[in-house]
Amino acid sequence: MGLAKLQMLAFSGFAAVVALAGLAYIFIDAPPYLRATREGVPYFTPPVANPLNGKPLDLNMLARHYEGKDAK
Fold it and tell me: What pLDDT shows up at residue 56?
């Protein structure tokens, strides 16, 4: 086996290890910005019921309205 093939094999192995370590870090210890939206609402939050008519409301819309960003 030539030196070039050995170097390429070592480089490919190193790149694979770094990629797998990065994916493992993201899935095992996710940073806070991957767990919630900009308004602080966790992802995959179910809609909440409107007490007046029972229709579902998006929690992100409620957070934006509460912060005053949805006002017209």
Answer: 92
Residue with structure tokens 């290890």?
17
User: How does pLDDT run across 17-30, given as a tens digit for each residue?
Assistant: 999 999 998 888 87
Instruction: Collect all residues with Cβ–Cβ distance below 8 Å to 37 and sequence separation of at least 6.
Output: 43, 60, 63
Residue 71 — very low, low, confident or very high, per pLDDT cuts 50/70/90? low
How is the chain split into domains, by residue range? 1-30, 31-72
Contacts of 29 (CB under 8 A, 6+ apart): none
Distances (CA, A) of 52 to 9, 20, 47: 65, 49, 15
Task: Give, in degrees to the nearest 5, the angle at Cα 19 between 15 and 21.
Answer: 115
* Whether the Cβ atoms of residue 63 and residue 39 lie closer than 8 Å to each other: yes
